[in-house]
Amino acid sequence: MIVLVLGGARSGKSDLAERWVARLAPPVTYVATGWNSDAAMAARIEAHRVRRPAEWATVEVGIDLPAALTGIDGTVLVDSLGTWLARHEDFVADTGALCRALVERRGDTVVVSDEVGLSVHPPTEVGVRFRDALGSLNRAVADVAQRSVLVVAGRALPLVGWQDVLP
Fold this sequence. Notes:
This protein is an alpha/beta fold. The chain has helices spanning 13-22, 39-51, 65-70, 81-86, 95-104, 125-144, 162-165, and strands at 2-7, 28-32, 57-60, 75-79, 109-114, 147-152, 155-159.
């Protein structure tokens, strides 16, 4: 099963994903895509690290998330697609390779990503490009996921595909 957990900053998306994964079969591997880019990010990474169960393995990845996923058996939590995409030059990532890796891997996968399209219009061209690239990436992952949820203010809203609502 592939689950996509979307949400804005501080929405509770990572907390929900961690709770979801904790109910799945072990072993669990936490795949971290973030890096200590500044003191604030280092603090966020540490907060995530502290709340994870000690028995979960942690794998830190750079841009080669698809290869990392193919090498892990069992349950995986990927946190998050936004920081993974940000590592790519001009925000161009191999979305097809990621989706193939998600579909082909053995074990359940919960993927966390930021939903940035509901915010104010980015004031810079770089911000617009990132928002658009992440929106396309999220849509591609949602297309291969069996379940998708949007987390708002700590509450999860199940999402359905357009094919489920059109007459």
